[in-house]
């Protein structure tokens, strides 16, 4: 992938988020989810924000809608979900109709660098999405502008250790077209955008634990042997990268000043 270009919908939908790949992720992470920890981590993270019922939340990179469904049903929030992957959104909107939550949730195709509701949201939430975005300064400024004063930002994302990276990790990042930062560098970007109360936590140990639990699920999936072997290897590779210190999992929170 050419890193000088912003990631495109076509790149995502033809590669990492082809429909078959999405459904495999969901089989591992749990119904409606395509990010580590699935429903359990989502409930934990949304609960951290302590949002009042009816608060308006923007879910950036909403995927199959799992987080939005939790926010609407378990926390009585109103959610706009955007995603660049049309494959994700097609499935998410089918699920939305099936869940009967259309009055509280709206999913639409959208680029998070082009947000158009300044000062509208009480919170912005995202799970392992920003790794796809090169211009993180522009991204975080767009998120800041979209929050009302006092609004909260909470997200997890793939991060990295300091360079030099191992050759396998460099190849993995290049193949996926990821743009990764260390946790402190990420936090500095958030602060520079004007956010206050910027906090970050390295939750890589949690990531490793989730991956190891996922391997048990993969072993039980109804898959062709070759598909299972490939999926298991992919997960084992993640464990190796995380244990080596190259791949990190970060959780970030911040508040827009009032």
Number of helices: 10
SS class: alpha/beta
Please mark out the parts with pLDDT under 50 across 5 or more consecutive residues, or reply none. 1-5
Strand runs, count: 7
The shape is globular
CATH architecture: 3-Layer(aba) Sandwich
Q: Which H/E pattern describes the elements?
A: HHHEHEHEEHEHHEHHE
Count of domains? 1
How are the strands ordered across the major sheet? 3-2-1-4-5-7-6
Give the secondary structure arrangement, pairings included.
Blueprint: H1 9-14, H2 19-29, H3 38-49, E1 56-60, H4 66-75, E2 78-83, H5 86-99, E3 105-109, E4 121-127, H6 136-146, E5 147-160, H7 167-176, H8 183-192, E6 196-202, H9 204-220, H10 225-244, E7 247-255
Parallel strand pairs: 1-2, 1-4, 2-3, 4-5
Antiparallel strand pairs: 5-7, 6-7
Helix pairs in contact: 3-4, 9-10
Describe what this molecule looks like in 3D.
- Strand 2, helix 5 and strand 3 form a beta-alpha-beta unit.
- It contains 10 helices and 7 strands.
- The termini are far apart.
- It has a single domain, classed as 3-Layer(aba) Sandwich (Rossmann fold).
- It has 258 residues and is an alpha/beta fold.
- Helices cover 47% and strands 21% of the residues.
Main attributes of the structure:
Rossmann fold, seven-stranded mixed beta sheet, 258 residues, disordered N terminus, 10 helices
């Amino acid at each position: 992938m050419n890193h000088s270009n912003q990631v495109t919908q076509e790149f995502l939908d033809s590669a990492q988020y082809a429909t078959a790949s999405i459904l495999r992720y969901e089989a591992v992470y749990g119904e409606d989810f395509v990010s580590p920890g699935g429903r359990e981590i989502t409930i934990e993270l949304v609960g951290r924000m302590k949002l009042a019922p009816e608060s308006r939340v923007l879910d950036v990179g909403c995927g199959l809608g799992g987080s939005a469904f939790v926010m609407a049903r378990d926390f009585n929030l109103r959610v706009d979900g955007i995603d660049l992957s049309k494959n994700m959104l097609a499935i998410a909107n089918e699920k939305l109709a099936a869940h009967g939550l259309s009055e509280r949730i709206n999913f639409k195709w959208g680029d998070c660098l082009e947000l158009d509701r300044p000062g509208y949201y009480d919170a912005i939430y995202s799970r392992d999405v920003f790794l796809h975005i090169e211009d993180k300064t522009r991204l975080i400024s767009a998120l800041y502008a979209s929050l009302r004063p006092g609004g909260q930002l909470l997200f997890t994302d793939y991060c990295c250790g300091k360079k030099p990276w191992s050759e396998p990790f460099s190849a993995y990042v290049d193949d996926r077209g990821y743009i990764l930062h260390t946790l402190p560098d990420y936090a500095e970007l958030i602060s520079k955008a004007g956010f206050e109360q910027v906090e970050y936590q390295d939750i890589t140990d949690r990531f490793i634990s989730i991956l190891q639990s996922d391997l048990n699920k993969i072993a039980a999936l109804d898959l062709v042997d070759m598909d299972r072997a490939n999926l298991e290897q992919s997960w084992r590779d993640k464990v190796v990268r995380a244990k080596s210190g190259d791949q990190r999992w970060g959780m970030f929170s911040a508040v827009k000043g009032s």
